[in-house]
Amino acid sequence: MSCQRLRNWIEERYDVEGMKGLAKQKLVPVHQYEIWYYTGGIAMFLFILQFITGMVLSFYYIPYFEHANKSVIEIVTKLNMGWFFRSLHHWGAQLAITALFIHVFSTLLLKSYRKPRELLWISGFILLGISIFFGLSGYLLLWDERAFAAVRVATGGAGNLPVIGGFIKAFLRGGIDVTGETLTRFYAFHVSVLPLITLFLIGMHILLVQYHGMSVPMSLEKKPLKQIPFFPNLFYKDLIIWLLVLGVVVSLATLLPPEIGKKADPLAPAPENIKPEWYFLFLFQTLKLFPGDILGLNGETIAIILISCGILFFFLIPFFDRKSSRGEKSILFTWIGVLYTLYFIIMTVIGYLT
Amino acid sequence: MKINYSLVTRRTFLNTLFGGWLAAFCGGTFYALLKFAFPTLGKEPDFVVLKTADFMDIPPNSVKPFAWGGQLGLFYKKQSGSTYALKGVCTHMECNVTYKPEDKKFYCACHQGWFDEDGKNIAGPPPKPLEFFDVTTEGEKLIVAKKGIKVELPKA
Amino acid sequence: MIRKILFACAFILINAATLWAQQETIEVFPSAPYDRHIIFQSLALFWVAIIGLIIIIRMKLKEIERIQKMGIDREEKNIPLLD
Ligand code: HEM
Ligand code: FES
């Protein structure tokens, strides 16, 4: 390239060689679990895609309960490429959350959370929670019957938490019930609050990865492993995978555009057999396991408390798993990891099939 | 001419191919995005259909507004009784004009532009005459069309 | 009696028909055959472009690995520039 003058201009001001050296220093170990390193990159790529499609959707979307549903319909039926970008945002969300779940479970099973990477686990877990909230809040923006019912159920479920439940429910709904106020609120969450927190957390997550380097699974720690540079070797491999993912989302968006239901009516009966989005199914299914009341206590409340404890344990797992922090084999936590993973998969499948 | 060594290294060749392909790919993808991000523009209509009864009976030396797409159209009857239709939008900076019956002129208040009864720009900044349309009647229907447009009414 | 039953049947039928009619869904995909044609064609082209890019990237990767094996990836530091 002959932009020599531009290059000189930059090089006189910044230590380009130094930065290049830094990029070359990053080495990544090669081993049979390497494939799980890519799941984080896929999630990040899909997040970027969500940001781009979300920004253009917000050019046209009207966050007011009278017009919200109609504005989505107009996007889909009247605007150039509107049906495509709405569908792309929908499928991008599905795949982003899938990739994130796979990423989280793979780091759980490989115990990459162990010392010194506890904060990576924490920030990653919060990112997973945030993207689920992204999904829920985005879903309400459609303001159709299903979205309305789903958000009512989800916020109502949070309301079952003892002591703080009532506050959370009121905060989320912006009132005692799901109304136009809730839509305004969820819009603010979806396009402003959550994106900003997400940017911050992703930045932190990636900086921490650079700082610690890639973790090596415990079983391989002692063996001599070949290392290859991240740039350019792995960067190009990432690029290949991103391109494939892009192809898949675009194909899904084209071939299976999601439906839009009728405008939500707070007074109408709930539509038949509503199901939450797939990433809520494991919670939904767990709630069904509990009888209406247990020893005179509200069964739902007990279920919610147990679920919260399960999630809290999951969140703090790096601190409970002392053995692997010390670098010893920790079979108990391998089993706990397997248990969590299987529970999630089985409950989601059962919820999907019934 | 045959040269025994290559002027281009394998790297340069690959880099150019890669860069070019990537640029084309991103360009195509970005084009789709821009297509959605730029507003889907409605076109200015070629013609509008009005009701004859609403317009033909206006008094001489007066105008009656109608909607020309999203803009102002004026139906105009001269003192002589002949009828016209024109776009009521100033050719200077797109303000709406008004008709001054006492002067038999069109006036634009934005920068004091004047047009005579044939729409010619006679005073002030407007650079071009007002746009006049073709008016035809088909029984009930009064068809106002851009000059030189062949009107094809939808069969209904 | 029979008339009543007939009326009831007609009533149910009409109701069913209106219910059916109400279930019209919103078109979430362009319906004109020409548009559909263009869309599927673009999708195919998109995949061709992606596969092309992937092939080029793999060629680049091979080249990078070749150079790394030769141990000369600390490229052109002191080479005089030709332009
Ligand atoms: C990880 C990030 C994100 C996820 C998981 C996500 C998820 C979703 C979901 C599931 C929907 C409903 C789509 C449908 O079913 O039609 C939606 C809609 C929407 N999202 Fe996002 N979103 C994300 C980021 C963003 C960002 C950053 C913005 C804007 C700054 C945004 C703007 C919108 C808008 C305006 C809608 C309404 C249009 C519609 O319903 O189709 N999104 N989002
Ligand atoms: S816009 Fe009419 S005179 Fe300037």
Largest sheet of chain C: none
Could you please say which CATH topology of the domain at 33-276 in chain A applies here? Cytochrome Bc1 Complex, Chain C
- The tally of beta strands of chain A, per DSSP, is 4
User: What is the terminal-to-terminal distance of chain C?
Assistant: 102 Å
Secondary-structure class of chain A: mainly alpha
Classify the secondary structure makeup of chain C into a structural class: mainly alpha
Q: What's the helix-strand series of chain A? A: HHEHHHHHHHEHHEEHHHH
CATH architecture tag of the domain at 33-276 in chain A: Up-down Bundle
Strand content of chain A: under 5%
Biggest sheet record of chain A:
2 strands, antiparallel
What is the straight-line distance between the termini of chain A? 60 Å
Cα shape of chain C: rod-shaped
Radius of gyration of chain C: 33 Å
Q: Strands of the biggest beta sheet of chain A: in what spatial order?
A: 1-2
Please describe what this structure looks like:
- The complex is a heterotrimer of chains A (354), B (156) and C (83).
- Helices cover 69% and strands 3% of the residues of chain A.
- Chain A has 354 residues and is an all-alpha fold.
- In chain A, strand 3 (293-294) and strand 4 (297-298) form a beta hairpin.
- In chain A, helix 5 packs antiparallel against helix 6 (118-141).
- Chain B has helices at residues 10-37, 52-55, and strands at 47-51, 62-68, 71-77, 83-87, 98-100, 105-108, 113-115, 121-123, 132-138, 141-145.
- In chain B, a hairpin with a 2-residue loop joins strand 9 (132-138) and strand 10.
- Chain B has two domains: 1-39; 47-145, 3-layer Sandwich (Rieske Iron-sulfur Protein).
- Chain C has helices at 2-22, 33-70.
- With 83 residues, chain C is mainly α.
- Residues 17-22 of chain C have low confidence and may be disordered.
- Chain C has a domain at 32-73.
- Classes of the chains: A mainly alpha (354), B alpha+beta (156), C mainly alpha (83).
- The A-C interface holds A 2, 4, 73, 76-77, 83, 87, 232-233, 236-237, 239-240, 243-244, 246-247, 250-251, 254, 257-260 and C 25-30, 39-40, 43, 46-47, 50, 53-54, 57-58, 60-61, 64-65, 81, 83.
- The site of FE2/S2 (inorganic) cluster has 11 residues of chain B, from loops.
